[in-house]
Inverse folding.
């Protein structure tokens, strides 16, 4: 999927806001959870491997292991915070939907 490497301040310049940016996040969360459930490894890759893919990897690590900050702490990466939050929000929503109601 195509994800533009934008921050919150640049979204209006392309006619987007946080809610409209990265509409594929929910489908991505479902894919990530299914892949993890199936015992598969997940590879995150973007054009340069430093921003969008790092954000995706950080969100996955944070959601499942609580270790996503390790990606932000590594000087080799510059995780896109909008991508990170969109994926974290989607994973959280997906996880809540997957939980049986009490």
């Amino acid at each position: 999927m195509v994800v533009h490497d934008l921050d919150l301040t640049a979204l209006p310049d392309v006619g987007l806001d946080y809610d409209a940016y990265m509409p594929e996040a929910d489908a991505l969360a479902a894919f990530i959870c299914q892949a993890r459930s199936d015992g598969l490894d997940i590879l995150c890759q973007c054009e340069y491997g430093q921003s969008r893919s790092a954000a995706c990897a950080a969100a996955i690590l944070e959601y499942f292991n609580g270790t996503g900050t390790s990606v932000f702490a590594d000087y080799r990466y510059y995780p896109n915070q909008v991508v990170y939050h969109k994926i974290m929000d989607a994973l959280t929503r997906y996880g809540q939907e997957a939980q049986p109601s009490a």
Remarks:
- Residues 81-98 form the longest helix (18 residues).
- The mean pLDDT is 90.
- The chain has one domain: 16-98.
- Residues 16-98 form one domain.
